[in-house]
Request: fold
Amino acid sequence: MRSTLFIILIFSGLFVFPQIAEHKIFPPVKSSFDVPILAYHRFGDNRYRSTNTSLDVFEQHLRYLKENQYTVLTFGEAFKRWKNNESFPAKTTVITIDDGYSSFYENGWPLLKKYGFLATIFIQTDIVGHKDFISWAQFAELQKAGIEIQNHSDLHDFFVNYNDAERAGKFREDLIKSTALIEQNLGKRPEYYVYPYGEWTKDMVQVLKETGYSAALVQNSGLFCETSDPFEIPRFPLGGYFGTFEELKRKIGLKALRIEKTIPDSPFLSQNPPEIRVEVLPGKVNLKKAQFFVAGTKCENIKIIDDPNNPAVILKATSPLTARRTLYTITAPSKDGKTWHWYSYEWIRPEVGE
Reply:
């Protein structure tokens, strides 16, 4: 109780948010790397098809990783390699699980053990131990076995629905509570965070930094690489429609499209359809052959700026966005044509319900 009060007293004060700097490569690296991070939710639970991965398919995924000699790291292991400027094995991936459904403990974990892999679970603390959710005792058992437990909020709220004056405070309150619960029940303070629904803003990032978090993951599809922003690390979803063996093979063979910056750098629409300029680090890809997709559907409204020193693409959907969340995705082939590079950007319309 005293440790919880201490945490709350430290972080419940008011803070002035400094201006966020332009994206820079962090930390400086000796060599590049491309690590696909795989995101799962439920395992063998057909009641929720959009977030479920069948056990047959999940075992296919794990068997493929094993037979093709992939190194599977927890997210913390991967992040610390990057932070410490250590090299990655040529074939490296990370398995993450969101929320903490009991189907992982009952169905997913036995398969991971069978193939000798570990994973990182990002848990929602408010529902720990409820029906269909893993208990604190079970999380402690998983943690002892090497599974990494990290934070996915307390209430899993729609934080972007709060106005600019309220959002940071609401997010901070939830973050302090979930952090304290994980530390009290598992004896370790979480270092990494997954945004609820993959929705985030720059003021939420600032709260994470101020409260000692090192990184956060989003729902945007893409690969973790040396130019990733540590608080916007992408993942590939592998549940529901995307949870097939073919999708795993396709996504795990991609490379990251290295981005210098995006303009604007906000998920909110100032116009609809929104336009974005994506500045690409030169040298990796044949940008002349870049392709643009809106919510998975190819769109021809792409302007390519083929400047060898400052290459960029300007993207705009041809019709207004209607969903709450919509991805703009860019793919471009490598200069030798052997691989494809991938980047996605998420737009959010908070006025639209889930």
Summary: Residues 164-186 form the longest helix (23 residues). Confidence is low (pLDDT under 50) at residues 1-28. The chain has two domains: 2-16+32-253, 259-348. Residues 20 and 202 are 8 Å apart (CA to CA).
